[in-house]
Amino acid sequence: MVATRLGTRIGTAVKEVLRSKGAWRDSFMAAASRAIAERIPLVNLVVEVRDARIPLSSECEILRNYPLSQKKIIALNKMDLAGASNVKAWMEYFRERNCVSCGVNAHNKENIRQLLSLIQRQVSELRRDDQCYNDYTATVMLIGIPNIGKSALINALHQVGRISASEKGKLKHATVSPEPGETKDIRSFKIGSHPNIYVFDSPAILSPKVPNVAVLSKLILTGAVADCLIRRKEVAQYFLAIHNSSDQYKKWAKLSIKDDDRSFLKGTTEQLTSSDMKQKSQIPTDHTQDCIVQDVRRTLYETISSFEGDINCEDEMLALIDRQFTALQEVFHVSAKCEDAHDKVAEKLLNLFRTGRIGHYILDHLPGKIQ
């Protein structure tokens, strides 16, 4: 599969960069790992946050050294980017291995309530024989790799938990950033009363060993590893190879319109009044606007559906991807005269992928169902 080969190539290139610079695990990462390792045996419950698109590749290796059993919950965050049916299949996979898991979207309050309820049930199970349960204080630690959404989950749990407990006071906020590695220390946030439950937000940690190239390529694509280690264009090519090999584009068939329809729509648009035009004003450089996202989907549909080559042939797949980059330049309003035009297109395209604006994707396949 071409996507697999491109992913291997990217993972290999980044692995060499990391090895040559010795940049995989700096002193901060080592210190954070030690601090977390010291606290794991002391907390009542660990919530391991993973990316729902890569449930295996986003595993936090440090937890393999601790037989946590009922003391751990696997939270598949960003479930809105993976799709409910895919997350459900992975939850069943973990259930069969006696692991408690749940799907969650940090920006969905109902999901947060469900996660909070699960945490409370697990705490209750651990203290079911304690007669002073309501006066008990439980500690929970959220652990995960960079850019997995831990801080966003912390803030949501803190807010929902305090509202549920009818507590007043100033809310604390964990630092949330699209860039990996922004959390620098371990802080506590109250998320429940009767019993009191405090959750620790910990710095993101990675394995001291560089992952294999297949895992590394997925960490790069989802943003867990900084983009600065390789050209964004190469990462975007990897994404497009995955997308072009899937059936995702078929869902956008209704977005494609014929030339006659385009002429009609253009004429209709020209008849709009100036007030209508003001209401529909757009910012050309803002690629997150719904109208531009729709154009991206349409462009990807039309370029793939009209492709007559063999997607299993690397040269032909790359030729298709190059045409898609060129077509997306117009959609994203990137000048053809710009020297790094394709890199600018790649940056915008990767942002739409990472925020779920162009569909659901699972990059890890269930063991035994590898495609």
Automatic annotation (TrEMBL):
<dbReference type="GO" id="GO:0005525">
    <property type="term" value="F:GTP binding"/>
</dbReference>
<keyword id="KW-0809">Transit peptide</keyword>
<dbReference type="GO" id="GO:0005739">
    <property type="term" value="C:mitochondrion"/>
</dbReference>
<protein>
    <recommendedName>
        <fullName>CP-type G domain-containing protein</fullName>
    </recommendedName>
</protein>
<keyword id="KW-0378">Hydrolase</keyword>
<dbReference type="Pfam" id="PF01926">
    <property type="entry name" value="MMR_HSR1"/>
</dbReference>
<dbReference type="InterPro" id="IPR006073">
    <property type="entry name" value="GTP-bd"/>
</dbReference>
<keyword id="KW-0547">Nucleotide-binding</keyword>
<dbReference type="InterPro" id="IPR027417">
    <property type="entry name" value="P-loop_NTPase"/>
</dbReference>
<dbReference type="GO" id="GO:0032543">
    <property type="term" value="P:mitochondrial translation"/>
</dbReference>
<keyword id="KW-0342">GTP-binding</keyword>
<dbReference type="GO" id="GO:0003924">
    <property type="term" value="F:GTPase activity"/>
</dbReference>
<feature type="domain" description="CP-type G">
    <location>
        <begin position="29"/>
        <end position="208"/>
    </location>
</feature>
<dbReference type="InterPro" id="IPR030378">
    <property type="entry name" value="G_CP_dom"/>
</dbReference>
<keyword id="KW-0496">Mitochondrion</keyword>
